[in-house]
Amino acid sequence: MRFLSLDLIRYGHFTDRTIAFRPDAALHIVYGPNEAGKSSALAAFSDLLFGFPDRNVGYDFLHPARDLRLGARLRVHGGTELAFRRRKGRSNTLLDAETEAALNDDALAGFVGSLDRAVFERAFGLDSTRLRAGADEMLADGGEIGQMLFSAASGLTGLRAASEALAAEADGIYAPRKSQTRSFYQALERYDEARKAERDSQLNASDWTALLKEEREIAQDFATVEQRQLERARRIGELERLQRLRGLLGEIDGHSAALAEFADIEAIEDRIGEELGELEVRRARLAEQIEAKETRQAAGQRELEALVVDDALLERRAEIARLQRESGLYEQALESLPRRRHELRDVEARLRSAAVQLGFDSADSLEKSFPNSLLRSEFQAIVEQSKEQGRAIRSAENALSENRETLARLEQQHGEPHLRDPAPLRKNYEALRDDLAGIKEVETLETEIAGKERVLFEQAAGLRPAVTDILDLRRGDLPAEAVLKAACDDIASAESALAECDSTLAKAEEECARLEGLLAEDREAGPVPTRAAIDAARAERDRLFEALDGEESAYRDAVRAADRLADNALDDAERVARHADNLRRLEREAAQREQGAEKREAALLELTKAKAEFEALFAPLDIAPAAPESMLEWRRRLDALLEARTALYALKDRKAVLDRKNAALRETLERFANDLGTDASLPLGALARDVGTALDRLGERWTEAREHAGALKAARQAAEKGAEQLDQLRQAEEALSERFVASLERVGLPGETGLAGAEAALALWADLPSLFAARARLAQEVEADGARMAAFEAEALQLAEAVAADIAGEQASRIVHLLTERAADHATRAAQRATLKESAERLRIELATDTGEREEIDGRMAAIAATLPDGVAINGLSARLRQRAASRQALTEARQRFSGISDGVSVEDIRTLAETLDEVDCRQELAHLKADAGEDTAEIETLRERRMALRHRKQALETGPGSEAAAFDRAAAEAEAQALARQWVVLKLAGRLLDGALERYRESRSDPILAAAGRHFRTLTRDGFEGLSQAYGEHDALVLSAVRTGGEEIRVEGLSDGTRDQLYLALRLAFLEDYASRNEPAPLIVDDIFQTFDDARSAAGLKALAGLEGLQTILFTHESSMVEIARRELGEAADIIMLERS
After folding, report:
1. Which of 293, 297, 779, 998 is the 20 to 30 Å CA partner of 763?
2. Distance CA 92, CA 715 (A)
3. In the prediction, which pLDDT does 5 show?
C-alpha cells in the first residue's frame, strides 16, 4: 500500500492542507520546524486508516472534534487506487473523496488487511525512543537470535526475560521436589493441619447447661433495671417540662398585664390606627415636597431673568453653518493655489524642453504634430524588431564560429579503429553472475564449516556427561524427550512418596514416644485402677465366693481388693480416663507406624526400580547419566547440537555442489580470458575479476569510439545549419530596414534618423501624453480655486456687516469661525431659556396638586377625630394602637409556643403543679433522679460485659477448640491449593507458548531475514561491517554476532551504543522487507530516528531507508541538516516535503 497524497482537511492546526507523495520517490522526507504541525501530520496516518478515538482525540485544539476530517489517495501493488475521507463519528466514517457519500466499513480491507492500530503503530512505526529501547533489549538478552528477531518483527521487547520470569514464578509455586519455600506445599501443609484440628474438636454438655442458666439470670437482671429506668424517665420528663414551661407562664402573664393598659381605647379598631399612621406619613412628606418646590421655583425665575439671547444672530444661523462647511474648501484652495501654479510652470517648462529636442519652436506646435498612440506603437515595434534582428545576427555569427572551431578540433582527433563490440561478451559474462557469486560463497563456507565443526566438538565435550564424537552419534540411540521426562517424573514422584513416608513414620514414632512417656508418668504416680484390673479383681472375688469352703479371710481380702480398686477408680477418675485414652491412642499410633514402615519399603522399591529404568535409557550411548533434572537439560542441549550438526552437513553438501559448479565455471572463464587476451592461469577468483576488468576496459574504449564519431557528425551538421541560418537573418534584416525608413516619415522624424535617434524619440514620446494632460488639469484647478476664494470672502464680509459689525475687518475664515462660535453660544442660551420656562410651568402645576392633596388629608384626620370616644386625643393615637397590636401578637405567640412544648398539658395544670413544687425542689429532685440513672447505667454496662463474656464462652463451646475455624481453614487451604495449581498450569503453558513462538520464528525466518539484515547493516555502517553471523552461546542459545570486514566477529555486548542502534534498525528493515514480499505492506513511518547519529551515519541511514524494496518509507524530521544530506546523497530519489509554520 502506498500513500499518493494525505489531505489534512480539518486536523490539528491544519485547514485544507494537502501533502502529495511522489510515486517514483525512494524516500519521502517531511521536514517541519518546531510548531509546524509535524506531530499532527504524523498522528494523522493512524487516525485516517483506523478511525478517530471516541474520546481524547488530541488534535481538536483549532477545529471542534466533531468537525475533524482527513483524506488520502492510496494505491496497492496491483494498481488499484482509492480516494477517500475519514470523519469523526461512530458510524459511516469512511466517505468518498468527491461526493462524500458513505463507503462500506470494509472499504480499506484490501489496503490494510488484518492490521489494527496497535500493530500498525508498533510494527510500522519507529522513533528514536523505540530504536534505543530495541538496542538496549538486544544487550539485555545477550544477542539471543529468537528474541531479537521477534522483537524486530513485532516491535515487542523483553520476551525472553518474560519467559524466564514465568518459569521462575511457576517454580516458586510447585516442583516435583517438595520444599517449604514453594507456595503449593505451604497450602498443602495448612490443609493437613486443619483436618487434624477439625477431628480433635468436641463439645462439653455440663458447661453448656451452666452457661444457659447464667444467660437466663442476666436477662432477668436486664428486665428489672430497664423497668426502673422507664419509670424514672417518665418522672424526669414531667419535671423538665415544668422547668421549660415555668418561664412561658410568666411571659403570658406579662403580655396580659400589658394589654390591660389599653382599656380606654378598647373600642377603637386597629384599622383606624393603621389609617392614621398612613395619613400622618403622607402629610409630612407633602410638606417637605411643597417647601422644596417653592425654593426651586424662585431659583429658576432668577436664572431666567439673567439670560441674554441675540435672536437676530440665531435667525441667520443656517447661513453661518453653510459658510463654516465651505471654510474647509476655502482654506484648502488658499493653501494649494501656490503649489498648483508652481506645478503648472514646471510642466510647461518640461514641454518646452521636449519641443526643442524634437525640433519644434513651442509646446503648442509639438502638441499639434504629436503622433497618435497607434503610430507610436507601430514605430516602437519596428525599432524593437530591428534591435532583436541585430542581436540574432551577432549570435548566429558567434555560434557559426564556435561550430567551425569544434569541427576543426574533432577532425584533428582520430578515434580507435577496428574495435570489437563487447555487448555479446558482456551478455555471456552477465549470464554467469549467479555462478560467480558461488566463488565467494565457497570461501565463506570453508571458513564457516571449520568454525562450526570446532564449536560443535567443543560444546559436545562441554556437556555433562560429555559426548566424545558428536558426528558419529545416532539420533535413534537417544531416549525421547517425553520418555525421559516421564522417567524423571517417576523418579521425582518416587522420591516424593519416600520422603512423605519418612515424614509420616517419623511423626508416628514421635507420637508413640510421647504417649509412652505419658503412660510412664501415670504409672510412677501409683498403680492405675484400669478397667481390666477392676474386672480381674472382681473375677477373683467371684471365683473365691463360688469356691468358699471356710476360707473366709481370703474371700474378704478379695472383696476388699476389688472394692479398693473401684474406690480408687472413682477417686482418681480423671487420671484413669486420661490413662485409658492414652492407651487407645498408643495402640492406634503403633498400628499407623507399622503401616508407614510397610509403605516406606514399597516406596523404596519403586524408587530403585525407577532409577534402574532411567539408567537403562542411556545404555545404548555408553554413558553414565547424571541427575534426572540435569539430564533433561542435557537432552535439550544435545538436540540443539544435533540440529547444528544437521546445519553443518547442509553446509558441506552446499560446498560440494559449489565445487562442482566452480570446476565447470573455470573452463568458461579461461575461454573468456583467451578471447580478451588476459592471463588464463590465475586462480579462479582472480581470473573472474580479471575477466570482468578486461570487459569493462573494452566497453569503455568501444563507447569512446562511438561517441567520437557521433560528435564529428554533429559538428559538421551544426556548421552547415549555422551558415544557412546566418544568410536567412541577413535577408530579413534588409526587409526590416526598408520598413523602418517608411515609418520615420509617418511619425514626423527626419529620414536620416537612426535606431539610436528613434529610441531617444520614443523615450521622449513616452512622457508627453501625461505632460499634456497635467498642463490642462492644473490650468483648470488654478482657475477654479481663484473663483471659489473670491465668492467665499464676499459672503463672509456681507454676513459680518449684518449681524456683527465689530468683526467685519477680520480675515474671511476668521469671520466665519467667530460667527460660528457666537451662534452656538446663543443657541445654547435659547435652549436654556426654553428649558427654564418649561420647568417653571411644571413646578407651578405640581405645587397646586400637592397643596390640594394636603387639604384632603387634613379633612380626613378631622373626620376621624370626630368619631373617637370622649377623652381620647388623636395625637399619638396611632402609636398606641400599634403597641396594642404588638402586645396581642406576642400573647398569641407565647400561647402557641406553650402548646407546642407542653405535650398536651393545659396552662391551668402546669400552673397548679408549679404552685405545689417550687423551682428549687424541682431541681433537687431532678438531680437525685439523674444520679440514680447513672448508677443504673453502670449496672447495665456490667451486665453487658457479663453477657458478652458469656456469649464468647458459649461460642467457644459450640464450635469446640477449633471445629468451625478448622473447617474454614481446611476449605480455604484446599481452595488456595486449587488456585495455585491452576496458576502453575497457566504459567507453564504461557512460558512454553512464548518459547515456542520465539523458536519457531527463529527457525522459519532467521536465514532470509539475517541475510537481508546483514546487507542493511553493511549499508548503515558504511561497509565497516561485512554482515551478521550466528553461533551458540551460553546455555546453547543461538546468539547474533556482527562480522567486521576483516572477518572478526563481535558479539552484541561488544558493540557501541550507536552501532547497536544501527543493528536493531537493520533487523527491523529486514523484517519489513520480508513482510512486504509476502503481504500488502503498510508504509513505514519513521520519526526522527537519526537524532543521535552524526552526519555520516545519518547519510548511511537515509540510503538504507531509500533502498527498501516494495515498501513506502516516510521520514519525519525537524532537522534541516537531514534535508541537506538527503538532497546530497539521494538526489531526485528523495521527495522533500516542507511543512511551514502556520
Report:
1. 779
2. 68
3. 92
